[in-house]
Amino acid sequence: MSISVLWATLLLLLVVASTVAVSDSAGVNISEGNSTRIYELPAGSRPHDVAPAPDGKVWYTGQRRGVLGILEPQSGAVREVSLGQGSAPHGVIAGPDGAAWITDGGLNAIVRFDPASEAVTVFPLPPQRPQTNLNTAAFDGDGLLWFTGQNGIYGRLDPASGVMQVWDAPRGRGPYGITATPDGEIYYASLAGSYIARIDRSTGDAILIESPRAGQGARRVWSDSTGHIWVAEWNTGVLSRFDPRDSRWAGWTLPGAGPRAYAVYVDERDIIWVSDFGANAVLSFDPQTETFTSYPGSAPGAMVRQILGRAGEVWLPESGLDRLVLIRTD
């Protein structure tokens, strides 16, 4: 397995925040010190999402190959677990039970992988909900799994009973990223609907939260440690923040020409990470200093569609290059 190490050194564009309006870039600085390691995956994997596993390994969804990939970071060794005929896995997260939970658009099902027994359990969506284009999932504070489907649905699975419920999303097509806050609340983003929503967990209702930027194309969302909701706005190239306590928005335009914000993740230090298809890069953003740091893709066409991490590590799936990238932050 080929492993190479790069150093990300370019710090881009100081920006100034506003509570509603998007801020403009103003200056360039240089950063040093964070190491990056690249892991080559089997050709044609097209890793869509990645999730650090509790045992130190790293899971990824091999969307084109219908597999859950398992990377051993120390050696670079990769194994693949088939998820079944027709599988096209999109999202993967580590559940509170230590298992990998996968949203599989090809199977139109939630899939659980037990790392101890390597058993694969499939939870199909109801037959009256075909071809939902399942996207991502998050566990709430009660251990229930919530998920999105781009073809206009969101849903809930009780892992203990296997009971699943599915709701029609406001404005139809679009539900994409989803996140849980520290107090267990669930928010999702609608790309086609250009909104974020909080799900009332008692009723299942989606409560729309409108952005001050019409048509912004909210693609993914993530919560920081204080419950702020960070949003990657695909159409505007803005990294935005919603404060549920006072319903105020702030926004920062990604540096460079033609930014396209895709994935967003908040690490344990409350540093925000966002991928930019326009720049073929991933950016970190420090809300305290309002500075972006750029980590260029390992080659042209990296296409980082999701970001996830654990303490001291940020993991990126370069879906266009069949690679995983580790950025060490400790």
TrEMBL record:
Molecular function terms, GO-annotated: carbon-oxygen lyase activity; magnesium ion binding
EC number: 4.2.99.-
Signal peptide: 1-21
InterPro entries assigned: Vgb (IPR051344), Vgb_bact (IPR011217), WD40/YVTN_repeat-like_dom_sf (IPR015943)
Gene Ontology process terms (BP): antibiotic catabolic process; response to antibiotic
Functional summary from the UniProt entry: Inactivates the type B streptogramin antibiotics by linearizing the lactone ring at the ester linkage, generating a free phenylglycine carboxylate and converting the threonyl moiety into 2-amino-butenoic acid.
Subunit composition and interactions: Monomer.
Protein name: Virginiamycin B lyase
